[in-house]
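fwd from M.: "can u put these together and see what the complex looks like"

so here's what she sent:
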Amino acid sequence: MDNFQLYSKKVLKHVKDPQNIGEIKNPDGVATVGNPVCGDIMRLYLKIAKRKTQKEKQEEDYIKDVKFQTLGCGAAIATSSMITTMVKGKNFKDAGKITNQAVAEALGGLPLNKMHCSVLAAEALQKAIKNYQQKQKK
Amino acid sequence: MLKKKIYLDYAATSPVTKEVLAAMKHYFSQDYGNPSEPHLWGQKARFAIDKSRQKIADFLGAKPQEIIFTSGATEAINLAHKGLIEAIRDTQNGKPHIITSLIEHKAVLETCQHLEKLNWAEVTYLPVDKDGLIKIEDLKKAIKPETVLISVMYVNNEVGIIEPIREIGQLIKKINQSRITNHQSPIYFHTDVTQALQYLNCNVDYLGVDLLSLSGHKFYVPKGVGLLYFRKKTPLVRQQDGGGQEYRLRAGTENVPYIVGLGKAIELVQQNKVQSVKLIKGLREKLVKGILKNQGVRLMGSSEKNAPHIATFLVEGAEGEAMLLLFSEKGIAVSSGSACTSGLLQPSHVLTAMGVPPEKSHGSLRFSLGKENTSKEIDYVIEIFPEIINKLRKMAPNLDIFNR
Ligand SMILES: Cc1ncc(COP(=O)(O)O)c(C=O)c1O
Ligand code: FES
């Protein structure tokens, strides 16, 4: 019962109260991705910091803060909101493992024709990390 | 805060009213006979259908023999277009030509495409201007000797624009007079009045139409019943074969209770027309005024030539489905023509035909009014509208002007 809606309760909750909305001034990594299918835009900002790993006492980069801006449908908003909560505090190795399926699952599933919105969120994250790594090389 | 739900999606469908339900009730388990049977049970049902048909014929200024009950406008439209072309394609010199518009309901557009695919007809799709109006001049230019059918909707369901049906009817009448003297076959004229019935004059002679279709669920009848009016002598081949029901033009045991409901609802439309036009017009004016107070919002359609129950806006910097969800969360039902809202992820073909680029129709929002709406409800919608769009605009990238 109660499962009559197109979107899960979690998706609707994120649409109503999205997490980590906004902009990070002078971000360490940023990426804007667009969806050619329906014309939405998503931008993801990362603040990166260094910390000691527990075991080897080495230094690693991790995502200290993350924010997003999205112009798009309910699924686009919910997936961007969800992915920010999933990556916050993670190192790149773990953040890199977050697939769009994982985001969709964390939201209690998405309708089939809305999966591409989650692809966009995952793509924004990958590109923002890459953007940071490229900046480091310079 | 208002706890009551506010339904503003009457152009999609409407609730069944008490009166209609009461009229139908009798025919489910009491007078449930098959109208084709000569016994008392059957004849009671037959009588009920006939009565409903007569009421509807009176309303449309037609004869009862010119009304075919169907499962809705979609079926009526399919029957009108396919049935006519099938009936005349052998009598025609050359491939039959249909003229329709780019803003028709999918039922018309897909049916025309089907006929093209079968190679049974050639179709011209007329463009519309920025308000959604077709130009009579374009229509005149499109007419050729092979033209047998012109199909233009009365009121568009997405923006509410009223097409010049009577004017087209008069034009066709003139052309047909000379065609008949030259022993050519006439042009038949179809219009879909599904969104017009409650508010505009739908008399078939006033409009000058030969074929007219409608669905009941837009005016408080259950989903799944509608009709096709066809002017006497309009050639038509039935598209659903079987028994001899509906003057042998639509086989299948009649949906007696729903047909009774349709008749009752049309009777109510007739009784309440003046009053309900006034009420709904007033509510729409109020809504439009209130919504347009917000920046970056545009009203679609035309201010003079619009049906009173539909108001569609383009909102900059907010996506339609997201707005719809936030409205729904507040207990308000609205709709949108954005690509994200459609199952096929395509922007509304109507807005596209009106020259709206996809990134603009992305922010389309349709309010459609009905008889249950009140002035208080409109106040509430106007009050929370800025809240909703500002929330989404704050979320959106790169739209600094709106991030106040
Ligand atoms: C103008 C118009 N024509 C046709 C239809 C189709 O009606 P139905 O789905 O009941 O066949 C609708 C409603 O969706 C409509 O608004
Ligand atoms: S953003 Fe368009 S469907 Fe999700």
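replying to her w this: Helices of chain A lie at 9-16, 74-87, 92-96, 100-106, 115-137.
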